[in-house]
Amino acid sequence: MKLRCDSVDTFPSPCSRCAKKGTFCEVDRNFTRERKRPQQASPDAMQVPTSLAPRNGALNAPFDIKPTAEGSNTDPSGSATPVDLPTVKNDNVKEYRIGNLSVPSAQVDMMFATFSAQFYPFLPAFPIHHIHPQVLWPDYELLFWAICNISARVCAPELVDVITLHLRSLINTTYTTHYIFRPFTSLTHVYALVLLCHWPLPHQTFQEDVSWTYAGIATHIALQIGLHRSAFTEEYTICKDGSQKYQARALTWLACVLVNQEAANLRGIPSTAAMDNLFLSSLLKVEHEDKNVSEMIKQARLLHALKGGIDKLGCVDSSEAHARHLVHRACEEVLASLLPEMMPWAKMTELVFLQAKLQLHSFLLSPDTPVKDQKDVIVPIYMVCIQTIQVIKSMLDSQKSHQYWPYFVHTSTISAAVALFKLTTCPYRDMIDEDTARNHVTDAYTILKTVTRVNRDVADRGIRLLDALSIMAKQETYSKELCIVKTRLGAGIFATALLEFKKWSRHQARQEKDEMPANGSMGNDIAFETFIELMTVDNLWDWGTWPELETAIPFPLDNGW
């Protein structure tokens, strides 16, 4: 006789048999349900009762789903949660207000058109047809004014200061909102912050640049809403039209990875955003019609390989310094293996590749690396810096759009020029062609002169730095060592030059202060002091700069610490 278990009727209480025996009630793993009866045997089962059918359209279902619709998988190129992308509104806005200031709609339309045509191709991580003032205003104000701020530097400079102040206030308040529950709003916040990292807010000193902070905020929001995780291949979705939404999420996270790694390389610290291989492979499966999107994916692949190399080289401590060149060679081969799949590539992608190589090479210039290994990397660094300046020079000659270049191009020019200048004064200068190196430093100086838009922007500060280095070389106050500063990402050629510049600038300031006339005038050369005081990397890991425990802590340390 076949017994029937009454667990279905008693759930969540245990079945009668288990309750009687006092045992834990659990369905066996080998249990299988009885197969459903075929449709031919129960023709009435598929008929919907008339009483349940909607009457006169009053109870319309939220989704129009056909009875025979099949479940579909999510697009593997995106994240797990879809995003509802809004459409252009029909209402015509005549003006947009920032406090007491009114900006005409015609001027805003011009700024959006400039952004879409000139700036957007460098970072196409957001659907272009949603970059419209009537879509973003007023619900997505942060992205709206971020786009206006970037474009106003070219077509409406009189509005830059006002929009910048408003943006800083918006970012401080936006970060505390419940962005997790508004997917498209959070996506616009992340993209706005990423844009302000690629084209930072106007600043006059290195430490005034808040792009690294904004990159961290953008990454944190993106992690909170799951942009970093691609969707599972068998994930259920109710409709098949979500590919555009998933792609928007995936590309937004890609932009976070790009700006994080670029900013981290400049500051000599590890990046805070990473990308797994599953996420990257899912993006490569999709054919992208926009070539700019394809180039951005190539750049992300290069920086992903660079981050892997940094993680490996960073694990080699001083006791294993003799093996550092082997790890470096393996990382360089991984980076080079990507080239066949990326050709042809754009100039910007080539520039990312060259800067990635320069970052890898810097690990072999650490003071604890054997001299032989340091010598082996001198010529590769020299070649990479030469190629970097040549690529930027060709971009300047062919595109004639330097006013739209991202911040990364300017910093790459400065770092390559400084590295070449250091190579011409280091003990290994006989290994390179000094005349060629000096000529390319001059080319970089000319490029910075051309791309300078306002006083004390990043290009102008780079010119001041190169001028000061040349004066230091003539005065023989310049160190002959190639690198005396070690950052978290290997030897810091750029940081070394800044540190020496800071010492020289302070010495010059003290001398001019002693010779200062009675009227208090100190001359024009002292302008270097303000620049270098803030355009430098703090030596955070130097224990000599940390406070003494006896003076910093007012109580004894014998209480179990």
Give a nutshell description of this structure.
Helices cover 52% and strands 3% of the residues.
Q: Which features characterize this protein?
A:
561 residues; mainly alpha; two-stranded antiparallel ribbon; 22 helices; 6 strands; two-stranded antiparallel sheet; globular
For the biggest β-sheet, the strand order reads 1-4
Question: What oligomerization state is this entry in?
Answer: single chain
Structural class: mainly alpha
Q: What is the tally of beta strands?
A: 6
Estimate the helix proportion, in percent.
40-55%
Mean pLDDT: 76
Low-confidence stretches: 44-83, 518-561
Main location: nucleus
Pfam family, one: Fungal_trans
Keywords: DNA-binding, Nucleus, Transcription, Transcription regulation
GO cellular component, one term: nucleus
Q: Can you describe what's shown?
A:
Helix 18 runs antiparallel to helix 19 (about 460-475). The protein has helices spanning about 5-10, 15-20, 105-120, 135, 140-155, 160-175, 185-200, 210-225, 245-265, 275-285, 290-315, 325-335, 340, 345-360, 370-375, 380-400, 405-425, 435-450, 460-475, 495-515, 525-535, 550, and strands spanning about 70-75, 95-100, 100-105, 235, 485, 490. Strand 2 (about 95-100) and strand 3 (about 100-105) form a beta hairpin. Among the domains are: about 75-275, no CATH class; about 485-545, no CATH class. A two-stranded antiparallel ribbon has the order 1-4. It has a two-stranded antiparallel sheet with strand order 2-3. It is built from 22 helices and six strands. The protein is globular and about 100 Å long. The protein has about 550 residues and is mainly α. Residues about 45-85 and about 520-560 have low confidence and may be disordered. It starts with 6 loop residues before the first helix and ends in a 9-residue tail after the last helix.
